[in-house]
Fold this sequence. Notes:
Blueprint: E1 7-10, E2 16-19, H1 21-24, H2 26-35, H3 39-70, H4 81-94, H5 105-138
Antiparallel strand pairs: 1-2
Helix pairs in contact: 2-3, 3-4, 3-5, 4-5
Amino acid sequence: MASTIWRLTPDTSGRAAIVGGVLHDLPRELRRLARAETDRHERLRDRLLTAIAATLIVYAIGVVLVYFLERHGPKTEVKTVGDAAFFTAVQLLTISSQLKNPVTAGGRILDVVLEIYALVVVATLAGMFASFFHRGESGS
């Protein structure tokens, strides 16, 4: 019988609460992941580290490009490296921004590339975790 990853149980307010399984053992599972105790944990750890490293590289390149493409644009809100760092981080994290959209053609293209990268990373992370849990249930 496959182990339960999580189950829903009603709490006193009538809402569903997640209990048991992996979520209950989250600290233990995180330690197993950090130590790569099994092949599954090692694969997931390596994939997560690769995604984090790639994202940090994309972020650093994005900051530099946003700064140089946008700082002299008409009516731009990106005037400093800090503005460029904020804009790039927000684009990678939320696909929106408190700053106005880029005003230069290069800035707009870069904005779209950053948004596509963010979507790909989110989908890839979902696939990584789905693969990790699916293999865990099937015993391989």
